[in-house]
Amino acid sequence: VQLQASGGGLVQPGGSLRLSCTASGFISDAQAVGWFRQAPGKEREGVSCMTSSDGRISYADSVKGRFTISRDNAAKTVYLQMNNLKPEDTAVYYCATVRRGTYYYCKTYEFGVWGQGTLVTVSS
Predict the structure, then answer these.
(1) Which residues make Cβ contacts (< 8 Å) with residue 6, sequence separation at least 6?
(2) CA distance 5 to 18
(3) What is the per-residue pLDDT across 67-107, written as a single tens digit (0 to 9) for each?
(4) Nearest CA to 16 among 108, 81, 93, 106?
């Protein structure tokens, strides 16, 4: 399966964006999906992960209450709704999925299939 992320762009502080990640093939509800981001000069970090079959959803502390992850199985798409964006949210955002199973820590090493990234810039 291949992943295609889209929806990034330039937004002012306090604004919103919705990122989309469309899969070329089937991803089961038992497979974890996640959004990660990498700011310049920093390591890639987990933003939000979910596994539909067991109801697991997690968010980084820095985005709790502002970001929401969701998926539409019929559209083979995972979304990241980002509200009240801050300059520190500026990064390249990547979607990812595991080859099988759930996740435990929403860390990059748990995910084996990655999209190409979409740039989010939060600036006035």
Answers:
(1) 19, 20, 21, 22, 118
(2) 11
(3) 999 999 888 999 999 999 999 999 999 999 998 888 889 99
(4) 81
